[in-house]
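SAMPLE LOG
Freezer: B-3
Tube label: C17
Construct: single chain, 322 aa
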Amino acid sequence: MIRVGIVGYGNIGRGVEKAVLAAEDMELCAVFSRRDPEGIKLALSTAPVLHVDEAPRMTDEIDVMILCGGSATDLAEQGPYFASLFNTVCSYDTHAKIPEYLAAVDAATNDTTAVISTGWDPGLFSMMRALFEAVLPNGGTYTFWGKGVSQGHSDAIRRIEGVEHAIQYTVPLGDAINMVRSGVMPQLTTRQKHLRECFVVAEAGADKAAIEETIKTMPNYFAEYNTVVHFIEMDELLAKHSAMPHGGMVLRSGVTGDTLQGMEFSLTLDSNPEFTGSVMTAYARAAFRMANENLFGAKTVFDVPLAYISPTERAELIKELL
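STRUCTURE (predicted):
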């Protein structure tokens, strides 16, 4: 039985809780939070809720720690710290900074295995991009996200001074998708592929113009996109924007000789955090297995054999799925 700990009990933490409880080869040992544990009630589990400062004393009781903090501020610190103590899995999703983050986590590992940037993008979509480009080397790859709630981008807005709450939707542009599917292999800019739409509840007296400017100029999140910001009241946000749908697709158009070929992988998600939590939990299994084989250090989805994430034995996978 793989003994799992969760750091952070927000949307993704609750998604991981569900996934761990559904896994027959795992048990949830503890949930760690920076908040007062007395104020946290787990949705499904009877596992203890502890302050994050208590985690180091439990290195012999937890096999894999799943880190559920946000990429904007939490994981840059928590990733290396927890990787020095435990085998870990995270969903770090600031694409431009992944090489830097990977190096920092790798330097911190100490006879531990840390699988970073799991989830669906980065994560599953990353795997599809690599697979598609290997199979169709002569072509173009295109990734579209949404329409849906981006947890990382929403979290980044909520960290802005004067913001009480916020939800951000990533909206793919249909004209761009149709161009790709036609086999034209267009050169598309970031702005030509997606729109980012933000619904923001500002604190009383906050400078809304400053908040909007901070959002639209935020590097790695919004600066490269056409971004629309709507200021609304909390009641409207809770009534209309509480669900967490998402999805997207990876497409590749290419040629083999003179023949046009196309490949697609798509997701339609009613709950982004629950799906992300499910992916992270699968990779917790892989982190545990790799650590047991002394395959230490920071890893990505490119470094993990598919058989390591499955609860099914390799022989059965070959018999039933190959």
